[in-house]
Specification:
With about 170 residues, the protein is an alpha/beta fold. The protein is built from 6 helices and 5 strands; from the N terminus they run αβαβαβαβαβα. The chain has a 5-stranded parallel sheet with strand order 2-1-3-4-5, with helices on both faces. Helix 3 runs parallel beside helix 4. It is elongated and about 75 Å long. The model has no long low-confidence stretch (mean pLDDT about 90).
């Protein structure tokens, strides 16, 4: 393991390993393969689901860092699931995984759920690794930006209070 990264804009291996990644596919072989890949290659212990409705419920009630979902699933398809994920956690990167190279549906998904990436099965492990890291770094940057904006808002309020106090003191 590496030390905690001093650069807040990139993630250390420890930060990546602690990420909450959700993987959803109705095929247990696919979720098992992705779980093994993420675990062995990146030391991520993903939360996996073979039922998209259970995944939807989990995403609506738990903070996550990235979601990877299959496109065609019974009950709730990948677009419906990622739409729900977007509604619950709009900043979380969403990756659509599909065995069907259908560009029309890919464009529809990109537009509807604002996909972070679209990956075709069978996936390339190095490409998927890059996508996961990029998604997690994006999520980290968005959280840092939100935190800094909140700090600036608080500082602005403090400064406004000081300005009012000074005006009263010298009025």
């Amino acid at each position: 393991m590496t030390e905690t990264n001093s650069n807040p804009f990139t993630l250390s291996e420890d930060d990546i390993a602690e990420s909450r990644v959700v993987v959803v596919d109705d095929d247990p072989l696919v979720t098992s393969s992705l779980k093994n890949f993420l675990s062995l290659e990146m030391e991520i212990d993903p939360i996996t689901f073979n039922d998209s409705r259970e995944a939807k419920s989990y995403v609506e009630g738990n903070e996550i860092d990235l979601i990877i979902s299959d496109f065609l699933m019974p009950e709730l398809d990948g677009i419906q699931l990622l739409t729900a994920a977007r509604a619950a956690q709009p900043e979380v990167p969403r990756v659509l995984l599909t065995g069907y190279a259908d560009k029309e549906n890919a464009i529809k998904a990109i537009n509807e759920v604002q996909l972070f990436q679209y990956v075709e099965k069978p996936w390339d492990n190095s490409q998927l690794r890059h996508i996961v890291i990029a998604g997690l770094e994006r999520q980290n940057l968005l959280r840092l930006l939100t935190k800094r904006m909140d700090e600036l808002t608080e500082t602005r309020k403090d400064l406004e209070g000081l300005r009012r106090a000074l005006v009263r003191a010298f009025a």
